[in-house]
Amino acid sequence: MNPVNIVVKGRRAMGAFAVYAFFILILAMIIYGAVRRAINDSRLTELTEKKIELLEEIKSLLENQQAR
Questions:
Q1: What is the DSSP letter of 68?
Q2: What are the distances in angstroms from CA 4 to CA 7, 14, 15?
Q3: Spatial distance between the Cα atoms of 53 and 20, rounded to a whole number of angstroms
Q4: Which residue in 55, 30, 40 sits closest to 22, CA to CA?
Q5: d(C-alpha 29, C-alpha 23), whole Å
Q6: Model confidence over 54-65: pLDDT tens digits?
């Protein structure tokens, strides 16, 4: 084999690896963003439900106070 051909093939393989690594990195960032957004959405939903419960409790306390 010609040593120049080995170097050229090696560079092509490294280039292909870099392209695949780049796409894998982009895909990982997209997945990470989606998971993070889902976690934030679930946390926001949980806090909203808690807020509604607290408001209902305040309303009930105010109604009890006015009934006296």
A1: -
A2: 5, 15, 17
A3: 50
A4: 30
A5: 10
A6: 999 999 999 999
pLDDT digits (tens, 9 = 90+) for 31-51: 999 999 999 999 999 999 999
Task: List, in sequence order, the alpha helices (H) in 1-68.
Answer: 3-67
Burial of 20 (0-12, 13-18, 19+ CB in 10 A): exposed
Looking at residue 65, what DSSP letter applies? H
Q: Hey, what are 64's tokens?
A: 């009890």
pTM of the model: 0.60
Task: Please state the length of the chain.
Answer: 68
